[in-house]
Amino acid sequence: MRHQNSDTLAEKFSAGRELRKLCSRPSHKAIGQVARDPVKLLEASSAGRVQRLVPLRYGRMLTSPFAFYRGSAIIQAHDLASTPHTGLTQQICGDCHLMNFGGFATPERNLIFDINDFDETHPGPWEWDVKRLVASLSLAARHLDLTAAAADEAVFTAVKSYQRNMSSYAQMGALSLWYERITLESLIAATPDKVAKQTLVKSVAKAQGRTQENLLPKITTVRSKVEQNQLVREGCWLVL
Description:
Radius of gyration: 21 Å
Strand content: 5-15%
Number of helices: 12
């Protein structure tokens, strides 16, 4: 089901309350279809990929549970397929884990923070993206040997931020939403931790120096010094 835009904010809230009756908050505790063969699902997801690179992908996934999670979006999609949702179908990311967010430049050369990987994008319930994101936060906390309390705090903070921003977006017009973005400058300003703020400042400086002029020599080779024809270098995916 695709929800139609309501004329007023009150109508939007009313429509949301009706959908909540169909999909209550407690219903989200369902874990879905976990009786499956993960290897078969991964093999299915590898169809259509460059086959000589598949072992490299699997090798990277074996390094940690968090790395495995990053490369196994199909498994979570399988598990969530039978779980309740509101029926609000969107063009979701499909692989909305925390490492698929980052800074990059717009065509206008403005540095923004957003989702930067859409390999798995597909129409689906918005809830799937939120659940994949918060699950990745919990797994990342375990990977870093953080406490359970720290993991819970990360998840709670992400969900509250999502809730707060979606509430704000519901009151904005389509044109305002189109131009809405998170700039790296605003992200730095909103970061309370000094160490994290310094890390972001360094990341911005690094991103500003990462231009196509710097990248091109790393991923291409010149076939002829006379003609100066540039070809994509074998193994350039390792550079990226």
